[in-house]
Write the structure tokens for this entry.
Amino acid sequence: EDQVTQSPEALRLQEGESSSLNCSYTVSGLRGLFWYRQDPGKGPEFLFTLYSAGEEKEKERLKATLTKKESFLHITAPKPEDSATYLCAVQALGFDGGATNKLIFGTGTLLAVQP
Amino acid sequence: DAMVIQNPRYQVTQFGKPVTLSCSQTLNHNVMYWYQQKSSQAPKLLFHYYDKDFNNEADTPDNFQSRRPNTSFCFLDIRSPGLGDAAMYLCATSHRLVADTQYFGPGTRLTVL
């Protein structure tokens, strides 16, 4: 069964303290891995899409990397405004070999950055 | 800016009283999705439209229906809301059906009294 697991569930950092969030996945065939940021009471905001192992994407203080089993979201020198829930989702090959559009979400990492 | 818009942002309805949530997009995307997200849970896909083709997830209750009158608009109808339907409802769009980023709207928070 396709599965996405995010860790840790919650993370508290001091401003400037770099860290990484993990997204491990077990899918029949990866078609894409997506990172989103979600603020309380709002819809997920798109951050990155990764398609193949070895791929990296970077935006301001965030960098996403992908291996064949997991993805990391690295946060360098975080600021309080980076506090949010970070969601990872994958799109996988369907059981018949065709891709399904359904995103399989992890339950997210709640990040709190204290000044 | 191109975007996904949801109205209203907050909706209060009574138990059993039909309610309609609205989504519009200026991205000109082919695919529109409706998700349900309950507190501290991952979004759960209810159904999607690829152009005019409707695809219902197997575990979506019959109480939930959807309409897409044109490319830009999509509606979520809840025929007889129960207390368990209280949630955030998210609309998303993508250009392609597979291997493509889904862009989400701000969501509609539904309260059922």
